[in-house]
What does this fold into?
Amino acid sequence: MSSGRLASARPRDPQASPHRRAPIRDYTVERPTVWLVGAGPGDPDLLTLRAARAIARADVVLCDDLVDRRVLELVRDGARVLHVGKRGGRASTDQAFIHRVMIREARRGQRVVRLKGGDPFVFGRGGEERDALQAAGIGVEIVPGLTAGIAAPAAIGISVTDRRHAAGVAFVTGHAREGGPGPDWQVLAKSGLTLVVYMGVARCAAIAAALMAGGLPPSTPAAAIGAAHTPRQRHVLGSLGNLAADVARAAIESPAILIVGEVVRGAAELATRDPNGPERGVVAGRSGAAHAANEQAAAA
It folds into this structure.
């Protein structure tokens, strides 16, 4: 090979390249600021680079219960970690108290990270915290995270928007705000959308009953995934009519995601081809695809 060829093969000056690497974000605090950071569904490998950098530079981290403890290993020595968990049915930190602590620490010049499982703006009260901070004159930086409603189904091979089975996906909560309206399950049952239910495992039986009352057949494919992307991950595959019994049998507890719709067949078929399942901690819900097929045959 000629020297001319060698010269032309050398990398170009990165300053002259239109595709050069973007500069690392500067996290220097110019005014009181809080970073609302999504920690993803569990595994630290699923953090965004921006989230990892924000955590590593923080002076104070206000951490939710759903944040995997391995993520906290990124917190630097000397930084403070304040556990301000909020879990349905358990003792929880008052939301107003969380607002006060964020505002106080930011005004002290601390680099404050509010660390939330999944994405801070998907059932994470991120909107409430943004509003409280802005009302107090505190800057807000949003660092999105991978939400469990996408990551948990993907962990067992479910594509929530598989166009062969659904025109879209609806993310809904199974735990409505106290005194507030809950989801309209009858409308959702008729929507033709994949239904992904957050915080619904404790009300699984009632949710399934409401969806069936709204017109979904008991044979509709359904799944539940607990502690996705952690060593404790477990899931069941089956049908809507048996989902609550399967969840109870497998002892799946919060945090968990429920998925209802034809897209679940993808995971059921994968489990049929691979008895070990697509991920660790697999629990087959009443033989998964075979059970749903039997129910369909019985209903015919």
